Every structure is written in C-alpha cells, then in structure tokens.
C-alpha cells in the first residue's frame, strides 16, 4: 500500500474508532435530563449507560472473531450500519425502553476499534504501523472528551433536549460508513475456521454478569443479594467458558493466547487505563459543576462550561499525544512507552489530588493525564500485535477492548461510590476530600500500569509482529 493510501486508510479508521468513545460518554452528562424528560427514576435512567456497556461486552469479542474469519471490511461496514441504526433509534426514542434498545445497538460500535487495528496490521507496512496504530488509538481518548463536549454544546439553552445528542452520532456513523466503504480495501486476509457459539455465549454471560453489578452496584447496594448473586453467577460462567474453550476444536479465544504473558499483562494495563480515563472525565466534570457558594469548593460550571473549559483541553492533549506515542513506540518499544504513560498519569493524578482548588490547576492536571492515556493507547496495540499472529489479531484486540471496558465500568462505579460515601451535612453533595481520594485512586491505577509494564512484560517482549509470526508464539486454533 502506498504511503498516501495508507494515510487515507489510517484517517478513516481513526475517525471510525473515535465514534466508539463518543457513544460511550455522550449520555453521561444528560442522564438527569433524560430522567426528567422521560419521567423515570435515577435508578432506571442509569441503564442508558449500562445497556451500551453490556452490548459491547457481548458483541466485541464475537465480532472480532467474525472479522478474522469472514473479512474485516464487511464486518466493519455492518458494525457501522448497526451503530447508525442505534443512534437513530436513540434519537427518535420517547420512552426509556426504546432508548435502551438504541443504546444497546450503539454498544455494538465498540467492535470498530479492534477491527480497525487488525486492518492496519494487514494493510500498513511495518515501518509505518506503530504510528498508524497510535493515531487510531489516540482517537479513543479524544473521542471520550469530544462526546462530553459535544453533549454540552448541543444541550445548551433554556429548553435542552437529548434527541439532538444522538442525531449527532447518527450523522458521524453515516459519514464513517461512507468513508470506510470508499477508502478501506477489501483485500484483507480471511482465515479458515468457524464461530464458536457456545464459547461466545459463555463469555458473553460471564461479562454481562460481571459488568452488570459493577455498573448497578451503587444503586442495588454492594452487599445486596442481586449484586452478590451476579458476581457468583459470573464465576460459574467463567468456569464454563474455560471448559468450553478447552474442548472445542476452534475456540473463540485461544486460551494459550489469553494467558500468554505479553497479552495478559497488556490486558491488565488496558483495564487500569480504562479505569483511569473514566475516573478522570467524571471526576473533573463533577468537580467543575460543584456549587462553590453552597459546597465551599468547585467552580459552579454549567454542563457546557465543564465540557468546553475543563474537558476539551484534556481531549485535545490526547489527540496531540497520539502521534508522539507512535514515534516513541517505534524508538523505545511498547513496554517502555506503557511504563512512561503510567508514570505521567500518576504524576497528573497526584497533581489533581494535591491541587484542585483553581481552574488552571485542574485543567493542566487533566491535560497531563489525558496525554498519558493517549500514550498508553499507543503502546498497547503494538504489544498485542507483537504477541499474536495475524489470524488472531481481531479477537486479541477485541479482548483488549473489553479489558478497557471493564476498567471504565469500574472507574465509573468507584467514583460514584466515593462521591456518595461522605456527604456534606444536610446536603446531597460530596465532601471535597472525596475528590482528593478519587484522584489518588486514579494515581494508583496508573502506578499499577507501571508495574504491569516493567514487571509483567519482559524486555524481550518486543512489539515485532514478524517475530510473533515466525516463532509462532501462539499456535493457531483452526
């Protein structure tokens, strides 16, 4: 592929991947608005984010495998069609049930990212691959911020409505669909095999039963029968999944690949970084909107101001850091860049924990963490690409995406729990110290990323796909 065509392909896939996190975060600032407009409770409206999460957990690994087997371009186009339909259904919804259907369809879009990385690996020459992967990966952090900012802009005014927020992603999905149909080559490799439906059902059941109590635990109660029952059932499904994958001839996930040291610790890092990203966005957004005249801290920002003034710089930092991450991965390797990302993220969260009483300090702390998240996103695909052969790249990146989804869910649940654990006397507002604790928890997640990179990944775990293919680190399951 020529450099010009490669740049076009990278740009189109980056745009498509950006939609993933736009859809994940766009509903967060307007949950209260949706509850008011649809006359539902806070508990009920939380399913607007949970539905997307559960759908992503079930569909992402399955669609990654389908892309490996039947072609990544047709799979990508089908996913974009479903994403556009989901956004349209959400935009037209006037009841919670219909909105949840639309949001579940939007969750399918999470598969775009692993499919995009797998296509880059097949089409882009190795000399330019790290930078291309970094650019596509960097759009995740940018998209998360863009989703919040766009929602703030679209719902400003005295009579906001949530419908226009979902029309925004419907338009993005259609544009990405057209661009992908034109610019993405249909020459990608297909590999023999079949879809492991029993494995998909078992894995999907495990992830749903794991993520459901994580996302709803603050409403149900962390020690309630529903929460503990779901966690227990998730363990049963996990055991069933392992048994199925060991027995079938063509497993959905090759367990040798899953347990392979570079893959395992890269996925752990993905969980830590996903946790840090959501905790950052939600922490800064909530802090900015705290009414200082009542709580004694905060910046009394509207949703719009919180999005544009406090979160947009973080999103832009993520976008700028992405190509830098690609260059660093090419020079230093994914392991050291991942460790560097953890170090920078730890410093940024420590900054926020120690100094969040001024706007400039909060904004710059967010910028530092945003850049760190983008560096980590640049490193992880390179580590995955260096550890698995071509025919498993779709499912491998799909599992890495799910690890970040699990982390994001934990981040959302933890900060919600922290901010409701200690309230100001006679007020439904958190004590300022709870934000300090939350930011220190974020620092801990980034510090764990350093440990995963330096202790879990070995220096010889270099991100060279040629080495992975020639050494056949992961035997093919066909």
Characterise this structure.
The structure is a single chain. This protein has 478 residues and is mainly α. The protein folds into 2 domains: 418 residues, Up-down Bundle (Growth Hormone, Chain: A); 51 residues. It has 20 helices and no strands. α4 runs antiparallel to α18 and α16 runs antiparallel to α19. The longest helix is centred in the middle third of the chain and has 30 residues. The two termini are 29 Å apart. GO terms for molecular function: transmembrane transporter activity. This is MFS transporter. Its main location: membrane. Keywords: Membrane, Transmembrane, Transmembrane helix. It is found in: Cell membrane.
